[in-house]
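Weekly modeling sync, notes
Attendees: AB, CL, MP (scribe)

Item 1: holo prediction request
CL wants a bound-state model with 6-O-phosphono-beta-D-fructofuranose before deciding which constructs to order. AB pointed out that an apo prediction alone won't tell us much about the pocket. Agreed to run with the ligand included and paste results into these notes for async review.

Input as submitted:
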Amino acid sequence: MQHNIKKIGVMTSGGDAPGMNAAIRAVARACSYYNVKCVGYYRGYQGMIEADSVELTARSVKNIVSKGGTILKSARSMEFKTKEGRKKAYDNLVEEGVDAMVLIGGDGTFTGGMIFSKEYDIPVIGVPGTIDNDISGTKFTIGYDTALNTVVEAIDKIRDTASSHNRLFFVEVMGRDAGFIALNAGVGAGAEEILIPEEDLGLDRLLESLQRSRRSGKSSSIVVVSEGDKIGKNVFELAEYVTENLPDYEARVSVLGHMQRGGKPSCFDRVLASRLGVKAVELILDGQSNVMVGVSDNKLIVTNIEKAVKGKHTINKELLRISDILSV
Ligand code: F6P
């Protein structure tokens, strides 16, 4: 590979996701393999602004492939949204001798990268890392599979107590404005209803469905509610509304929260992160910039970062139909 790249920077930004460490390791090791120096920036764009960095070598990233969170820490930098902040970041990269950046994160991270690479002539490559799976240009984001497994395990446990007490549970899951986690974990855990922002079920249909469940002999039910869903916006109020209208139901609410972002990455996420991290470095050495590397049909694909930010990753609505059939 013919190139002038001597040093590559890497950072993690936005909500952390299991597998980010595997991606950092892949970037650092690929750099070492291709004889390029690697530097990690702490707390995403904020670390770039403050020149808060650490040299990453093949050995310094040992034993992190299995660790949740991110050793580089993560943040959502307000300062990077300003021209002055981005200028400081650029000056620091020049000072440090960084020729290109690998940005591991989601939507917000890539929006920042897109603006930065328009203002300054520095190649940026995006690696999608978020539990939400809401990025266009990739079928899967790093951390999504682990989060799904975490949620399914949590709902399985809730199912035990729900069925012991003949209760109805509303389980709120993360996903920001997207229903990927709710829909797939809901089907995986056999939920009776799944509320997602992409499909407005409506309160009346929810009540009808729960009544039908009762009539069909079910003594307990699980409703998975995506945090971005319109009728589930306040899951506690939703539970109250349902019990006011269906008084024979005893309802409880469980908000799974940030536990969904933690834990050891699944093998799927480790492999995905490893592939994407290596490819990000190779793209830089190939002279590419302003693109995101993703996966589709088990092949690595490259998408313009602007397209990845502006495009929409749509859910598989067929799963809603499957869920309806299976919750009969
Ligand atoms: O984007 C990942 C995510 O976990 C979303 O699912 C959630 O809406 C958000 O981050 C929570 O952000 P914070 O950790 O800042 O509360």
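Recorded for review: The pocket of 6-O-phosphono-beta-D-fructofuranose is lined by residues 15, 106, 130-132, 174-176, 227, 261 (CB under 6 Å).
Action items: CL to compare against the apo run; MP to circulate these notes.
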